[in-house]
Design goal:
The chain is an alpha+beta fold. The protein has helices spanning 2-25, 31-41, 43-57, 118-184, 190-224, 247-257, 259-279, 327-394, 399-434, and strands at 27-28, 69-86, 92-114, 233-234, 285-298, 306-319. It has one domain: Up-down Bundle (Outer membrane efflux proteins (OEP)). Strands 2-3-5-6 form a 4-stranded antiparallel β-sheet, with no helix packed on it. The radius of gyration is 40 Å and the shape is elongated. The two termini are 55 Å apart.
């Protein structure tokens, strides 16, 4: 039994030493570094940034139809054919396998100068779409930063709990050593040694499970940061909570800065500009055109075997819609319905945001109260554990009482860590909804 005990303890100590050596080599990842890396590398942010750039590239007067279209064309066709020609005086001319050619080319310009102001509405719509792309990018950035912050503070919480389990193992190891010594000098039964070893093994299992959870969270963080998922790192131990948030202030900020609400406003404006383009179809469309053309025709038989020409062409075109089977009226009615739907969507999103804020703020207040309560419980549990361990060293207390004090301290520490984490996550969620999330 003695050999088994020392073998187990040696293995455990070697594990701790190896883990400590590895921890020294790990990088310390701060929240600022994590957010910076995510902004540079995260795939969702990059994809949203590409969409924004496309929307930005689309804002041109040419895309809105304000500029003319210029085209150039060239055609060179050749023929080989048998031809027969009968003239009015009865003379017949024949050519076998006669060759002919036609060469045509030119440059033309077409410009719609008026289409019921639809082109101006389209250009303004392209500008609004660019703003929508920027808003969607902002929404993606805030969402991914919130994910990074949530995962970061989850790692802090798990590190705090790892320390609590480390403390539990240290105490259990002390109990095993003490029980073994007492057994060897005849002052304790073997049952006390076995109970101490069972508790030690239980605490070791809890530590291993916590280490597994911590490692998996590290992998998830590396995935968010788009880097090697096998990178090991540590994070600072502190969780600083902003306890000065107010519901009125958050509601006011959300009305001005929430990306989803801003996107709803832009979507409503985009739909209004769509309706303006539909109404433009009632007006005439006026265009101008000009061009330079040349041609050359050669044939083996005919009154003229070669003809050429070149010159300018120009003109004005106009078209006026008169009747389209009542489709214009139907399209305008549908456009007005879409405007109403966009307004309803804005109101729905605004209502949803206010409801999210109210619920999240209540949870935030509850978690702040729990942080204060669990902090007090943790301090009391620590004092009780210190007193219990001192009595245990003096031999005036049972191992069952030591175990109770040990578990009370571990559980209080874990609850305090969870309360801190939940309060911080509540703070992050509130700022994400308000559109004010920052470091």
């Amino acid at each position: 039994m003695l050999q088994y005990r020392f073998g187990f303890l040696s293995l455990f100590l070697l594990t701790l030493l190896f883990g400590a050596g590895e921890a020294k080599a790990q990088e310390l990842l701060t929240l600022e570094d994590a957010v910076r890396i995510a902004l540079e590398r995260n795939y969702d942010i990059k994809l949203s940034a590409n969409d924004r750039r496309i929307a930005e590239n689309n804002v041109t007067r040419g895309n809105a139809g304000m500029l003319p279209n210029v085209t150039a064309n060239l055609a060179n066709n050749r023929t080989i054919q048998n031809s027969t020609q009968t003239r009015s005086d009865g003379q017949v001319n024949e050519v076998s396998w006669g060759q002919g050619s036609t060469l045509n080319g030119g440059v033309g310009l077409n410009w719609t100068v008026f289409n019921g102001f639809a082109m101006f509405a389209r250009y303004e719509q392209l500008q609004e779409l660019q703003k929508l792309g920027e808003t969607n990018l902002q929404l993606t950035i805030i969402s991914r930063v919130a994910d990074v912050m949530g995962t970061f503070y989850e790692l802090v919480q798990q590190q705090q709990q790892l320390r609590a389990y480390d403390t539990a193992i240290s105490i259990s190891r002390l109990r095993v050593n003490t029980a073994q010594n007492r057994f060897e000098i005849g002052k304790a039964a073997r049952l006390e040694v076995l109970n101490a070893q069972v508790d030690f093994n239980t605490d070791t299992t809890n530590l291993l499970r916590q280490q597994e959870l911590y490692r998996n969270t590290q992998i998830r963080m590396n995935e968010l940061l788009v880097r090697d998922v096998n990178i090991r790192f540590s994070v600072p131990d502190d969780i600083l909570i902003d306890d000065q948030l107010t519901l009125a202030g958050l509601t006011e900020q959300a009305a001005q800065q929430n990306p989803s609400l801003k996107a709803a406003v832009l979507n409503r404006r985009i739909v209004e500009l769509d309706a303006k383009q539909v109404r433009a179809n009632r007006y005439p469309v006026i265009g101008v055109n000009t061009g330079y053309n040349f041609n050359r025709n050669r044939s083996a038989l005919g009154f003229s075997t070669l003809s050429t020409g070149n010159g300018l062409t120009y003109g004005v075109s106009a078209s006026v819609p008169i009747f389209s089977g009542f489709n214009q009226r139907r399209n305008e009615q549908n456009a007005n319905i879409q405007i109403n739907s966009a307004q309803l969507q804005y109101e729905q999103i605004n209502q949803n945001i206010n409801a999210q804020l109210a619920a999240a703020y209540q949870t935030y207040l509850t978690n702040l109260s729990l942080v204060r309560l669990e902090d007090n419980n943790r301090r009391i549990a620590r004092q009780n554990l210190d007193i219990t361990l001192e009595k245990f060293r003096l031999g005036s207390i049972t191992t069952v009482e030591v175990r109770d004090a040990q578990l009370n301290y571990v559980n209080a520490t874990v609850r305090y860590s969870n309360a801190q984490f939940q309060a911080k996550i509540g703070e992050v969620a509130l700022k994400e909804i308000a559109g004010t999330l920052n470091l």
